[in-house]
Amino acid sequence: MMDLLNNIVTSKEQTSQPEPIIITFLHSRNPEAMKKLRNYYTQSHHQQHSSSELVTKHRKWVFPVAIIVSLFSLSSFLFIAAATLTSPDTTRYFPFPLSSTKSSTTLPPSSLFVESKLHPLPPPSSPSSPPRFAYLVSGSAGHGPAIKRTLAALYHPRNRYVVHLDLESSPEERGDLTRHVEGHVMFRRFRNVRMVSKANLVTYRGPTMVANTLHAAAIALTEFDDWDWFINLSASDYPLVTQDDLLHTFSNLPRDLNFIDHTSDIGWKDHQRARPIIIDPGLYMTKKQDVFWITQRRSRPTAFKLFTGSAWMVLSRSFIDYCIWGWDNLPRTVLMYYTNFISSPEGYFHTVICNAQEFRNTTVNSDLHFISWDNPPKQHPHYLTLADMQEMVDSNAPFARKFHGDDPVLDKIDGELLSRGPGMVVPGGWCIGSSKNGSDPCSIIGNTTDLRPGPGSKRLETLFTSLLSEENFRSKQCV
Q1: Can you name one GO molecular function term for this protein (predicted)?
Q2: 97/356 Cα distance (integer angstroms)
Q3: In what helix (H) or strand (E) does residue 399 lie, and over which residues does it extend?
């Protein structure tokens, strides 16, 4: 295996544009091999960035000496200003490096367009600690208890959480959930759970669902600046693995991967979703109403290609930065288009990521969910019960949906897959207390970077080995 790995790395180093070789790194199940692959992946990004800086430095010598002298004082001022702006207190406000250097193969020397000078933050190099997830957990009227349970099942001190209960819920229900978040011993200690105080009106199938997701992502970027992936879930979702399982497995992955189920073969959605024009009253009303159609229809766009897929996804920090800042305007343009698109959550992020050159090759075609659909699929999936338990486990997926909030299958998942006691969070390597006689092991807290992966991590390894295989990874990106 190591000989094969050396051959792969050597051959890639000889190319001018190294391609991330993540399609093989999980096959080896060899920690040394996986470490070497991760190091190669991050080094290749660093080498490209370093070479682009060298090219730019060489270009500076072609300017006339007279111009350099006349602008010397101004350059000095800008250098000092840039150093100030990139100090630890201010870097979080910039989603891109202030340097405008780019490879000569992608940036014309005389380019005057600001879009060509901006690019997403590179993946962190050689991360020394486990990653962090930023979760959005959202619900509507009556979902307060389900959100509390889902939060407990998802909780880990390293992660960040944004909780939203939409405007259809009563002020009393939102107040109860706010008090739960503010009063929970663990949440209060680590201060990593945020309740959206100004609730949004979210219309099912409307663009307000996309707006709410972008709102939560913006909160995550503003309130927490140290996470790696953004995961959107609803009150009807539930994890099938512990957070230690998930963090351990994602520690072996490049941090610019995006797990998003997608296809350009939209089929029947062309006639029923792409052509009609809908209006979402949730954009301008204070009471929830269903979307409505207008009589005029429209043609397929030609400025970008439509993609569709699952509304549930795991998105990288760099892609979320791009969607919020939108420095080449594609995210905003696509958002305007999807404002009048039925079920826009099943198309917006998919269309943006597959039309953005810098992100289209980071996609993994999966939503990491177990969902039971009719064939052909109807508007809603089945609600999962005890009868679906084995199929859920066999899917190796880290999440499943939809569940009724009090279904007995959730108790079975808590007991058999998560080891979660009633009213407790899921224990992990950071919990060093005793669990005897029903005690909460997380009442005593150790090192939050210590992970204790269990059987769920083996299932995830099997899943990712398949998703990142040669036959499933590159061949299924944005097609």
Answers
A1: glucuronosyltransferase activity
A2: 18
A3: strand 399-401
